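Hi F.,

I've been meaning to write this up properly since the lab meeting, where we talked about keeping a consistent format for the predictions we share between groups. The idea is simple: the sequence comes first, exactly as it goes in, then the structure tokens exactly as they come out, then a line or two of notes. No screenshots and no reformatting. I'm using this chain as the first example so we have something concrete to point to.
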Amino acid sequence: MIYVKYPSNKTERLSFYLATEEYIAKHYPKNDYFFMWQVKPTVIFGRNQLIENEVNLDYVKRNNIEFYRRKSGGGCVYSDPSNIMFSYITPKLNKDFVFTNYITRIVTLLRQLNLNAEFSGRNDILIDGMKVSGNAFYRVNNRSIVHGTMLYNTDISVMVKAITPDNEKLISKGIDSVRSRVTNIKDHIDISIEDFKQFFKDNLCEESITLTNNDIKGIRKIEKTYLKSDFIYGKNPDYTIKKKGKTKAGIIEVTLNIKNNIVKNLNMLGDYFIIKDIDEFVGLFKNIEFNREAFASILKFNNIKDYVYNLETNEFLDILFK
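Output, unedited:
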């Protein structure tokens, strides 16, 4: 694996680092790449999440906390200078192999530090049964990108306030609840954040490269796609029907605009992981009848798992028609 370094130590906004992943996937030779980064207080939400459902916009604006949408699926997370973000880019495409192999390597290294670490659920790493890392996955240019958090000494109370919708009762309950389920590396081991990062770099990577000034220009160009207001705030179209359910793939929320029982528009929100373009998937159902048979007919020739990781056809149909 190759460690990616920047020509400057300047801390950038989160969108810059997401653009770096994408740039490497599009422009660097096929290989495994890894880098770590930290940002000032920032909220990051998934590609298909509704910002109003995930972020306390009033709180983050009052407290100068930045917020960005990423192009991978998954849930909403909070990062600050005491959280380390990990980025992994690989030409391997099998999602199960990429995700499991990479996270297992991270868990193995945590165990070498005598931490009681385990891979849990869809995308989490736990220490002593408490979450210390969450990860997400997506594809760009026939490369896989996995990125995630590693809580070193993050302020849990700020995290809860930032990613809980503006409801004081929920926030006060949430802080205690999250503190019982989430932990920081520093609570379990006496190691500096720089030594912790160096340990991972030394044990994951055999060599390193430094991005050029031309690379930085290319990254800045990609970064602009993350800064567009319509990308950050997303689509919030009119709908006549809303359906929601929890599946093995995550939470799926479907909104439909239906006229004379014909689907005019369909959108899918949630914390699921995207494999292929979700806009292509929802477009399959435009101008068809809103009934189980018509949807099942479309899915007979289009494998839902090609678009959404681990989502079963019957689970999707049950959300819509049960």
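Notes:
Residues 19 and 219 are 6 Å apart (CA to CA).
The chain has two domains: 2-233, 241-321.

If this format works for you, I'll send the rest the same way.

G.
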